[in-house]
Amino acid sequence: PSDPPERSNLAAVQHILLVLSGKGGVGKSTVATELALALRLAGKRVGILDVDLCGPSIPRMFRVQDSAVHQCDSGWVPVFAHQDKSISLMSIGFLLEKPDDAVVWRGPKKNALIKQFVSDVAWGELDFLIVDTPPGTSDEHISTVEALRPHKPLGAILVTTPQAVSVGDVRRELTFCKKTGLRVLGIVENMSGFVCPHCSECTNIFSKGGGEELAKHAGVPFLGSVPLDPQLSQSLEDGRDFIQEFPKSSAFPALAHIAQQILDGTSPRSS
Amino acid sequence: SSGSRDEVLRDKRAQIMSRGLPKQKPIEGVKQVLVLASGKGGVGKSTAAVNIALALAANDSTKEVGLLDADIYGPSIPKMMNLKGNPELTPKNLMRPLKNYGIACMSMGFLIEETAPVVWRGLMVMSAIEKLLRQVDWGQLDYLVIDMPPGTGDVQLSVSQNIPIAGAVIISTPQDIALLDARKGAEMFRKVHVPVLGLVQNMSVFQCPKCKHETHIFGADGVKDLAKSLELDILGDIPLHVNIRETCDSGQPVVISQPQSDA
User: Fold this and answer.
1) Which of A34, B140, B164, B190 is the most buried (most CB within 10 A)?
2) What are the required cofactors (chain B) (predicted)?
3) Are A265 and A185 in contact (CB under 8 A)?
4) For position A271, what pLDDT does the model report?
5) What separation, in Å, do the N-terminal and C-terminal C-alpha atoms of chain B show?
6) Which residues contact B50 (CB under 8 A, 6 or more apart)?
7) Is the Cα torsion angle B85, B88, B93, B97 positive or negative in sign?
């Protein structure tokens, strides 16, 4: 018997977004992180819930991997990524004794922790809660969608790279969303082209257009193509705020545009 | 004497705890099992598995090689090996692996529709893996290469507990984020007593086809540092090359179609 949605820890969270992909390594955590940073720059309070229990990337991307989680009356206190407490994070990465510890768990244990992450974290007042997921359509996803259902999530953003093997997996994820009644806010095509910093020749290392085509074919909005950007990878390694520090970089316009579409979709004036 | 009593207690406890665990049983006809894992998704496990399987067969044409795609949720092998269709059943009710380029392949991808997601919890996944391992007519294989899914969960545990594994190869890209997970992957294999043969660094450097300028898009040498700290060998360093992706997408892996290229 859990708290009814009105009294729960998620009661003061305005919008819940999931970042999904059928495929691994396409940039879910990257997109989740950059989206959070862009929304914060637009003045929103944002939280990120990292339910990737085997490979939690979020703490590292904000350079808070050595932080610990504290308890309060209403549950766990999320870790704040910046001094001004504008981004709060929760991940299994904060609960491990050593960051290198492997979490080799079977399904039921993972499900129990995810339920706790959803109901026992004192998020407080947030405009957006972004949920970063592992690849696939497994225990973590089923549990997360079930646990979030009473809180009426806004929808899911699907991330893919342009190549055929990724698009195939993401197509399955779209079906998963349909089956579980999760609204698809749109598709992001990541790693879409690389511009050589030396000669400006654009090479489509992972092909191009696969994500856009999938969006058209499936009848979901296409949120944009993000190119391969070494500055983006480097700033994630260092845990820096890419959105504020590298506005002239090649990935910035696409990422900013994606955040803008999310804001437009949730502004009170939209129908 | 209390020290030896503790030891006896410890051994007894280990014995009782291991009673519930599955015993390792080798697959009939398969000599050596090689596992490709990473912890992190999208670093190129399937791409490497396919090309390694083909390279093993190309290096020694007397060896029979099989390829098992253990990624239940995102099976990539069918596309990369240009194979489609449901496997036939032998008179003994075993599934016959689909063959291409001389490699016998089995994947979840052959058993479900291309667009159907596999939305299963752990227990069903375990029984599916069991079927893919044992209810397949592999015949006599010198090597079975198993392409693992990302993560350190049910599939990895089931495979390591059910069959003896000759060795595991861990693949990673140079980024910190990927290395974090690769380290966890190595730790997982240590926990389940599977020998790790070494690390492979993938997507290490990109050379612009026009001006030949080299860019380390995902960082440089990260895997070399990890290998040193884990005291493992680097088995290979694969650059980012458009050919690899193009040939995978079209189902003609680069080892077969372009054996002269850098990859």
Assistant:
1) A34
2) [4Fe-4S] cluster
3) yes
4) 41
5) 60
6) B67, B77, B80, B81, B147, B248, B253, B255
7) negative
Residues B164 and B156: their CA atoms lie apart, in Å, by: 13
- Tell me the one-letter amino acid at B109: G
**Would you give the distance in Å from CA B30 to the centre of its chain?**
16
What is the domain count for chain B? 1
B249–A104 C-beta distance less than 8 A: no
Read off the DSSP letter of residue B175.
S
Domain boundaries, chain A: 13-263
Helix (H/G/I), strand (E/B), else coil: B237: strand
Q: Using CB atoms and an 8 Å cut-off, which of residues 164-193 of chain B contact chain A?
A: 173, 175-178, 180-181, 183-185, 187-188, 191-192
CB pair distance less than 8 Å for A107 and B219: no
| Parent domain of B93 | 26-258
Per-residue pLDDT reduced to its tens digit, A144-180: 999 999 999 999 999 999 888 888 888 889 999 999 9
State the distance between the two ends of chain A, measured CA to CA, in whole angstroms. 35
Residue B129's CATH number: 3.40.50.300
d(CA B151, CA B139): 30
**Complex ipTM:** 0.73
Distances (CA, A) of A184 to A27, A174, B223: 17, 8, 36
A225 beta partners: A189
Which range, of B165-179, B222-236, B244-258, averages the lowest pLDDT? B244-258
Give the closest residue to B33 by CA, choosing from B68, B1, B9, B62. B68
Mutate to test the interface with B, among A51, A62, A98, A104 (most CBs of B within 10 A): A104
Q: Which CATH architecture has domain A13-263?
A: 3-Layer(aba) Sandwich (3.40)
Q: How far apart are CA B152 and CA B189, in angstroms?
A: 9
Angle between helix A164-180 and helix A210-218 axes, rounded to 10 deg:
30
Which residue is associated with the tokens 């990895």? B156
The pTM of this model reads 0.83
Minimum CA–CA partner of B81 in chain A: A165
Task: List pLDDT tens digits, range A201-211.
Answer: 788 888 888 88
| B162 at interface of A, judged by CB pairs closer than 8 A | no
A267 to chain B nearest CA, in Å? 33
Other Cβ atoms less than 10 A from the Cβ of A239: the count is 16
CA A203 to each of CA A33, A188, A250: distance values in angstroms, whole numbers, following the listed order? 26, 19, 14
Question: Cβ of B261: how many Cβ atoms within 10 Å?
Answer: 13
* Within a domain: B117: yes
Q: Is B197 helix (H, G, I), strand (E, B) or coil?
A: strand
